[in-house]
Structure prediction request, 221 residues.
Amino acid sequence: MTHPYEKGDTLVVIVDERAMYRAGIKANMQSLLPGCKFLERNLFHELQLDPIDNNNVYFMIRIGNISDKTILSNIRKARSIQKSCKIILYDYRQSIYNIIEFFREKINGYLSDDFSESELEECFSSLAANRIHVNMQIAFDLMISTPRPRRRKNPNLTPTEMKVANLLVTGLSPSLIAKEMDRKISTVSTIKSNIFKKTNVTNVIELVDVLENVPRGLRIG
Prediction:
């Protein structure tokens, strides 16, 4: 595959559906990293890159309202393109507490959607010094946010709930699970809601942690 940049170049991959935002990021990046190359895509799945060697690669990815599971998958795919790449996410629309999960997956920085040129410069200065970066207001919000109550190690799920839970953590949507189990979508949605209440989670990422603590012999499906 022929890449639109040369080996040894600094490459900035910008993933954002909004062309004007991409243009703004490019303008700021050109002053921060003179001579860098750019690759722009509307969505992450549009990227079709072979692994990159000997390049400084930065991913700037707008995450918006996409699911946490997809975000984590995109982070891993970016790492498969280049293991030492720097990943910056921005504009997360869900619970700020979940951003911690992305840092556990080794992202390098997080910015809010309305980040300024000076914040972008501060972010890249941190990355150059091999430090992670997060907006100060967000860092403060994370520090004062109330930790979620400790979850039970062995949730009291029925066999049907356990089967749905196992399918959810594989990435299947309620509609696909309904087809798999020959149930109505509304029924599966209700089961999913009951699972989240019993396990005290708010998303599938947290459900993965819960199921990892369930003895293998109790897992169904």
User: Anything to note?
Assistant: Residues 159-218 form a domain with the Arc Repressor Mutant, subunit A fold (CATH 1.10.10.10). The chain is about 45% helix and 15% strand. The longest strand covers residues 56-64. The two ends are 41 Å apart (CA to CA).
